[in-house]
Amino acid sequence: MMDSNTAGMGILPNGIGICTTIPDILYLPELVFGGLVWILVAATLVVPHNPQAWVMFVSIFCFIVTFIWLVVFACGMHHNKRHWAAADLAYHGIAAFLYLSAAVSLAKVTLEMNDGTNSLNYKLDIAAVVFSYMATLLYFVHTILSAMRWKSF
């Protein structure tokens, strides 16, 4: 059986270690794709506003919390490793669920606004849908890997 520490699963990283351990290497792509969703949705004007507001809330909330989580791990402010691993698992599970709900609602609104023309807003919303599903996938994979790390403690 492979030692869990050799794969980076049984440790919580400090400093630059967040760029070399699994699942922490996913923080940067989560920030990039979440930021792209945020920017693309903010750049479009879509009616109804309510699903767009939900997508904006989810993307901004997850961007900020993921950035804070990244700083916590980078600065080594996590002392009780098992509790931090459980909190990491819980946050990424919630984020994956929130992004899935936002991606589905954004896809629904985007499909409904297709009037046969390839307007700029429609193209931007298509890109936002793709990036929101990518962010969902990243958060889901991070959740699975965080669960594996949590169980290894």
From TrEMBL:
GO CC annotation: membrane
Keyword Transmembrane carried by entry: yes
Organism superkingdom: Eukaryota
GO MF annotation list: structural constituent of myelin sheath
PANTHER family (UniProt xref): MAL, T CELL DIFFERENTIATION PROTEIN A (PTHR22776:SF94), MARVEL-CONTAINING POTENTIAL LIPID RAFT-ASSOCIATED PROTEIN (PTHR22776)
Organism expressing this protein natively: Cyclopterus lumpus (Lumpsucker)
Membrane topology: Multi-pass membrane protein
InterPro entries: MAL, Marvel, MARVEL-CKLF_proteins
Ranges of residues in domain MARVEL: 18-151
Record-level GO BP terms: myelination
Annotated coiled-coil segments of the chain: none
Membrane-spanning ranges: 25-47, 53-77, 89-106, 126-148
Keyword tags: Membrane, Transmembrane, Transmembrane helix
Localization of this protein: Membrane
UniProt-recorded name of the protein: Mal, T cell differentiation protein
Chief site of localization: membrane
Lineage per the UniProt record: Eukaryota, Metazoa, Chordata, Craniata, Vertebrata
